[in-house]
Input
Amino acid sequence: MRCRICGAPAAINMRQHKLALCRAHFVDWIPEQTERAIDHYKMADRGEKLLVAVSGGKDSLALWDVLHRLGYAADGVYIDLGIDEGIGYSGKSRALCESFAAARGLNLQVVSVPAVYGASIPDVAKKSMRGRRKPCSVCGLVKRHIMNRICREQGYAALATGHNLDDEAAVLLHNAMTWSGGYLVRQAPVLAATRPGLARKIKPFCRIYERETAAYALMQKIEYIYEECPYSEGSSTLYYKEILNRMEEDRPGAKLQFYLAFLQAKDQGLFAPGASGESDLHECAQCGQPTSAPGKCAFCRLWENATPPGLRPPSP
Amino acid sequence: MRCRICGAPAAINMRQHKLALCRAHFVDWIPEQTERAIDHYKMADRGEKLLVAVSGGKDSLALWDVLHRLGYAADGVYIDLGIDEGIGYSGKSRALCESFAAARGLNLQVVSVPAVYGASIPDVAKKSMRGRRKPCSVCGLVKRHIMNRICREQGYAALATGHNLDDEAAVLLHNAMTWSGGYLVRQAPVLAATRPGLARKIKPFCRIYERETAAYALMQKIEYIYEECPYSEGSSTLYYKEILNRMEEDRPGAKLQFYLAFLQAKDQGLFAPGASGESDLHECAQCGQPTSAPGKCAFCRLWENATPPGLRPPSP
Output
């Protein structure tokens, strides 16, 4: 197999694109494809200040690398969730983000949940509503809250996340299997900042296969954490990724077609305008962030229930 | 494993319902469940004259048996498609329908496509647009045309088909994977006769697993054709059935939850009113049946292209 562009031995063959590329052309192809997605979905303008949510994994570090190479002003934010679970998960991933940023002279903000808010994610999950909330649900809520706060306070135009095509297709299949109307209607490459106090969210890798982001990270010699988060075991996203991997094997391009057909159908008006289930937002009485809950937002209530009175989230 | 009702040895265990039943209670449970679906989805009233589309397979013969046992006035219609393919497929399935009807004193109408219209389905497929139409697409079109004509001419209130939950879930998954808006919006247990000249279509087995219709046919000693239609090999419905079988194995009830969640989301207004893509119908200039095509309907055009001038479909 040879590189379609230069004829050198190919480093990767992408069956779904009928495209084989050598290392040098592949590591340029990924930024080109990313740029196309950014333009196509109107994710960001070149002059805007972006914040990249980095976890230490291949996708988010590859995204930061690509945005930097494309000339975007992109800072990073790492949220230390305090997850150890015998493998030092948070410590390892934080160190990888810090050395990635230092090697490239990039600006990384680190927010330690245990240091700032007084408890780790697993602790809060255990104490919330007598342990009824799962760590992943707590984690999502906390990350959204903190990232939105940073964007707001420091004037970032958008928050970029490393979600790749496999992530998006798996979530989409999950939402289609459960016909979760609100989630289906809201799933998109860009979530506009429709309300004051809410940051725009963008997913520049939404058309890039996970296999390709992994290959990019390896070829660019990006050191990333190989382990999945210990809490992701048995998650529905991993389950639907496996189902989709089988379909992709049977029909190369199945994942991409699935995701693009969804976006097209949505653009063409498949869903009813009222089906998003979004309700009016107001400011949380405690932290000031937008919330649909009466009084305090879910983040502030979570923390109130799970931590001792002395360790409450800082007020705005 | 024991029957939940009488404690006798169970003949079937339905994991998704956490229900095991003996033969006697299972063959009563199926009609009860069918009646519930008929009532719940307002498929038919007891006094209405129904037409059951029978193919000789387990689902349609089991359905006719159940409707008969429930006291519905249900005639059958068998459409002989002229499919032989070395196994005498049409001949065998026709004979099974005829002996089923004769043994129960039921009224079966037989329409032979080669005898009435001058060519078999495989022949028409080969000759249509230089073979571009596949036999399954021709078959669907021809069956819809003939069944609708019979309902119209003979005053049947509704056409009942043996589609089971596995069929419906597989078609739904296919439509969700391709995000085929019109198909998604129109898929339902009942297709109302929204236009004059169109028969109502009902699927009383839409919540019954294929495994259960097969078990019912066996326990009721219904002789049916075991072979799938030779043209169904490699069909997308069979493919998605396999995918769903895997999900069902991992999570019993997955198929049923998928289908019911879809119907609920649709009821709750997930889809935009205009997304069905339905266009206005008028009468076909040749046969008089409703069509959205200008001039003649797809059935009349198909036959015109595929058969010699002497063998044209009869005019109304």
User: Anything to note?
Assistant: Residues 12 and 311 of chain B are 50 Å apart (CA to CA).
